[in-house]
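User: I'm writing a short methods note and want a consistent example. For Glycosyltransferase RgtA/B/C/D-like domain-containing protein, I'll paste the sequence; you return only the structure tokens, no commentary, since I'll be parsing the reply automatically.
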Amino acid sequence: MKLKIHPLIVGLTFASTFVVLLCILFNPRWETNDDVAMSMVAHGYGLAAYGTPNLLFSNVLWGYLVRALPTVHGVLGYSLATLGTIALVGTAFVYFLYRLGASYLTSAFLIVLLLFRPVLFPQFTINAGLLACAAVLGLLVYARNQSSLCLAASCAFAFLSYLVRSWEFALVMGVALPCLPWALFQKERRVQLALTLTICAILAAWFFGNWSTSGPDWNYFWQLNAARAPFTDFDAKARLLAQPDIMARHNLSKNDVELLSGWFVIDRQIANPEQLQSILSELGPSGVSAQFESVRTAISSLAEPQLFPLLAVAIVLLTLKLRRRVILSWLLFLCGLVAMGLVGRPGLLRVYFPLLVLLILLPIALDSAASSLKRVVIVIVLAGASLISASTIIAEARISDRMLADVQASHYRTSDSIVVWGDSFPFEHAFPLLFTNPDLRGLRIYGLGVFTFAPFAVARAEEAEGRGLVTRLKSADGIMISARDGSLTLLGTYCAEHLRAEMATAIVFESKRWTVRNARCDIQTAVPSGGYR
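Assistant:
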């Protein structure tokens, strides 16, 4: 009697083994410092004075889930949730594709092609998009096999995707719209009920998330966030520098504008929300030429090495299986790229990655009746792309591991907080997923960034205690700061323009990957031209 293993067990075994094996062979690190910051917020270290589920980039309910997970051998709950999500997505891909007629060999190559990077360089936006892709596959399985389990799983994946990153969830589902089983939504009461419950759950999560980050403690944070975003994230800086008359009316120097766009938001003479909103109203909209260049960047970024193997496979599958619904999804994808360029957010590879994953999965999921020759061609294409992609990612991972080892060898301790400004501090290598030097995890970080004035931030607490950056910068002890030379030059000019002083710096710690300096403004010495020594 031949033993038949349930495809769900096959998927779980393969996906889990794949994730664990990569974690043994390499040391995964975060793709961006956003995940590092949210891990700090969830577990109360680094830039967070205390732990809280209010992760800001993800829904507060995801924060509660992350905080509920235990720390296992130094691996924090946020890391466990991230890797667990990828294993869950891999399981779903194998199981759903099997139910749609794809072979295990096809699924295996897809897992290598689609999940190799998310395991070694995880990022929450990518995870949200992958969860949304799993939700789409689950719906397609239900449309074919009427499996209640797949329908329930699809709704759960959709809800989790929303919790992790709502905008990416909406983007993936928007591109998938032409391929969804719309007839089921119209005639099947079970599907209508599942859809209604999912929408209600998402609305409840949205309401609870907004309520959790509202109130007096959050008012200034949100006011500043809305006012500074055009300068830090979009092109308001360039437009303002091109109009010195507006700068003069608001008593801002070129250095002030450079500071603001570089996240120096702690001086309210520079980063005053009301003043910034007034400046934005005077600047008006971006020019057509800037928007055109942004759109060009958005489209050309598809050729980046991280995306090109996925793009090539998606195009090959489109030509092999020309279907009107998939073509419409491609058009929506391209429209999404153009829209992101028009709003000034081009080239976000973490946003594009799940969309290309979706465009690879849809032709395979929608064409179970492909000929044997076509199936063989698909397997060969996936195998070749997987090999090329894996070799590239392995090379990146080896370089990353060496950099991580350099940073983890740092042993710097201080009872004072360290001002971290810009990309001078290697967050992703200092706080990897699986292990962190206890000296590094013990640092109190006064971060200049999105979270500076969040209620949980070390920076917010120190400003409230009268130990803010500017106050300490003027003191005899000064501040401990990790910043690039260009940022220090801006700070030196700030001392001259606003404090009528010269800034003095001295290195107190130096390693291969990062440096800490003591900086102070000597208010006894007038230096009209600015600078630092």
